[in-house]
Each structure stands twice: as C-alpha cells, then as structure tokens.
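Weekly sync, protein design subgroup
Attendees: M.S., D.O., the rotation student, P.L. (late)

Item 1: inverse folding check
M.S. brought a backbone from last month's batch and wanted to see whether the design step gives back something sensible before we order anything. D.O. pointed out we never logged the input encoding, so this time it goes straight into the notes. Structure tokens as presented (379 positions):
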C-alpha cells in the first residue's frame, strides 16, 4: 500500500493522473497523506473549534512549535493564504504608525509588479494584472508597485519615509515561476534595514519545501521581518495559514484589533503540526531538490522550437511555450492530460510543473517521459 497518493483519480472510468499542479502547492505532502489524515480524524473526535475568546490547549503548542522551527517570536494564525497576507499588511501598517512614526493614515506598502496573492479587494489593489483589477475598483489606497528584481528602483521608493513595508514573493509563482537574480533577496534585506522598512516575504506558495528548502528565502541565507505561510501548511486537507514575525512588530496589535472565527482552531493547529512534521521528518526538502534537478535536466533538453525558456528551483518549475498558429500552452496541457499528467498554463504561454514533493525517482522518470514525448510531438 502506498504511504500517500501521488496520483489522483480524475474521471468516471477510473483513469489515474500524475498531478503536476499539486493544488498550487497545497498538497506538497501528497494527496491524503495517512499521518495527516490520522491526525485530522483523531482531533475531529476530540474538539474542532473554540472561540479565540477562550483558551484551548492546542493553539499554544502550535505557536511554540512553529516559532521555534522558523525562528520568530510570534505567530498569528489565520486560515487562507490571502488572509495571512492581508494580516501581514495590517500588522505592518500598525507598526508603521506606532514604531516608525508615520503620520496617521499616510502609511504606504510597496508590492512587486506581477505579484499574485489572491483576489480580495486589497490583493486586486496591489496587482499589475488587468484581469485581476479591471472593473473591481475603487481600490485600497496606500499601495504602490515597483519592478520585481530591481534593487535600484526599490531603493528610490524606500526613501519615502511613509513606506512601512515591502511585500514580495521570493519566487513569483502565478507570474510563471519567475526567479530573481542571485543576491536580489540579500539586497532587499539590506535596503529594508537601511530605510527602516519591514520586508514581508510571501511564502504561501514558494515555502514549505516547494523549492527544496523550508522557505525559499533560505536559498540566499536571509530572513524577512514577516513571513506568510499557507497552502501546504494544511497538508491538503484543511485551510491553515500563518503570519510569523518579531515581538516588536506583532505586539503592535492589541487585544480586540484583529481576530478570526476559525483561525487557530484546534483542528487546524493539529493538522498543521503534523503537516510540518511530515515535511521535516520524511526528507521532503531534500527530495524536492533532488527530484527538481532531474526534472529541470530533462526539461532543458526539450526542442527550442517548442519551449523558449526553462526555469525552476527545486520542484517549482516552469516552461515558456513558443506559441504558433498550430499550438499553444493550453493545447500542450490538454495533450499532457490525455497522456496521464495534469498541468495548467498561466499567463497564456507558461506551464508550471509543480508536483507533490513526495514524488520518487521512478515516478519522475515516468513523468518526464510523458512531458518530453508530449512536447516533442509538437515540433
């Protein structure tokens, strides 16, 4: 019996597929990991939800576990990735007023162009993608955009004394797995320190093993002031997200100023601890890096007449399809589906390949054969 499902049953005749989207990295541990399911079942029979107005014995355990693991003072529990990012912005604004001394209602938050962190009004307000913001205004004030992977422009904008935070994905996922130049994150860290601005790392998709590290920031050996987590934190079975930061930042929020009906519930906390332990104890960071190396090596052999660009880190990979009158990325994905592998285009011409990081070498060989033969057939 498999320890976890790496394939999913997807149609009425029982055909199985390799999942190379992994619910946008929400199922890094694989579908229906038995340890995560066992924790879920056990806690469901004990206690699932208490108001945050009352004490429960699981929340503190979870907060201590996560803060020690990631090296932060405090954790604020939420449910979805977008809630975590909204909370990070809210906390950063409060810090801007209480600690940095920004005049009332003048705080600004910078975001990288081509970011994606959800579809709330705040997220739409920070987007540079017309499909995200068109006909959804008016927008949240105090949000400004800077080019991704451009430290020169970033520094100029950070000189504004009313800027309280810069939120950026270490690797832009929805934009097409866009990896910044080496040293970019180190530069972000240095500039935010220089100008007394909080660096918020949106690791909802890039974190928790996807790149072969606990967080993608670890590739450059830097630590953000605030980190947001989600997706795989719930092990693919329950929505769990988190904001981690220092006492200086988190304690700006006073009792009654923030909350969540479901955030920090005993069920989600227990699931998250097991989901993290699966990543930590089963060698999944190392596996993601190793399997990612195999996948990228095979992708780079694809014909240039079909694939323009290949990029990736760990199992966070993407290819740009050279669209012609005879084929495009969507048609490639449809043919991959017919061959037993599920993937999805983003921005029309890019295909992300992000399987659960439990995938083993035998399965990766089967999957790269499917990908390479399918894409080569368009040449």
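Designed sequence read out in the meeting:
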């Amino acid at each position: 019996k498999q320890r976890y499902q790496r394939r999913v049953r997807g149609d009425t005749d029982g055909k199985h597929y390799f999942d190379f989207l992994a619910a946008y990295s929400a199922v890094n541990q694989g579908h229906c990991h038995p340890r995560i399911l066992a924790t879920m079942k056990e806690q469901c029979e004990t206690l699932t939800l208490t108001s945050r107005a009352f004490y429960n014995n699981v929340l503190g355990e979870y907060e201590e576990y996560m803060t020690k693991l990631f090296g932060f003072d405090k954790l604020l529990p939420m449910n979805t990735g977008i809630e975590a990012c909204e909370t990070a912005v809210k906390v950063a604004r409060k810090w801007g007023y209480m600690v940095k001394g920004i005049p009332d209602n003048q705080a600004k938050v910078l975001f990288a162009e081509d970011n994606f962190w959800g579809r709330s009004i705040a997220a739409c307000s920070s987007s540079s993608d017309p499909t995200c913001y068109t006909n959804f205004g008016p927008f949240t004030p105090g949000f400004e955009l800077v080019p991704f992977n451009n430290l020169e422009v970033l520094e100029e904008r950070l000189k504004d004394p009313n800027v309280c935070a810069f939120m950026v994905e270490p690797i832009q996922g929805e934009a097409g797995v866009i990896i910044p130049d080496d040293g970019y994150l180190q530069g972000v860290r240095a500039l935010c320190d220089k100008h007394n601005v909080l660096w918020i790392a949106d690791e909802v998709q890039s974190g928790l093993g996807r790149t072969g590290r606990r967080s993608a920031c670890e590739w450059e050996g830097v630590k953000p002031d605030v980190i947001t987590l989600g997706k795989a934190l719930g092990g693919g079975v329950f929505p769990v997200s988190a904001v981690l930061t220092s006492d200086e930042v988190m304690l700006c929020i006073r009792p009654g100023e923030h909350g969540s009906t479901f955030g920090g519930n005993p069920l989600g906390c227990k699931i998250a601890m097991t989901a993290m332990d699966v990543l930590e104890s089963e060698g999944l960071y190392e596996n993601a890096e190793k399997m990612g190396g195999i996948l990228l090596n095979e992708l780079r052999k694809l014909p240039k007449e079909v694939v323009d660009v290949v990029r990736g880190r760990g199992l966070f990979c993407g290819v740009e399809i050279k669209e012609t009158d005879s084929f495009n990325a969507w048609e490639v994905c449809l043919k991959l589906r017919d061959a037993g592998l599920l993937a999805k285009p983003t921005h029309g011409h890019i295909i992300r390949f992000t399987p659960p990081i439990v995938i083993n070498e035998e399965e990766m060989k089967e999957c790269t054969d499917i990908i390479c033969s399918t894409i080569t057939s368009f040449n």
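Discussion: Residues 81-100 form the longest helix (20 residues). Residues 172 and 178 are 5 Å apart (CA to CA).
Action: P.L. to compare against the previous round before Friday.
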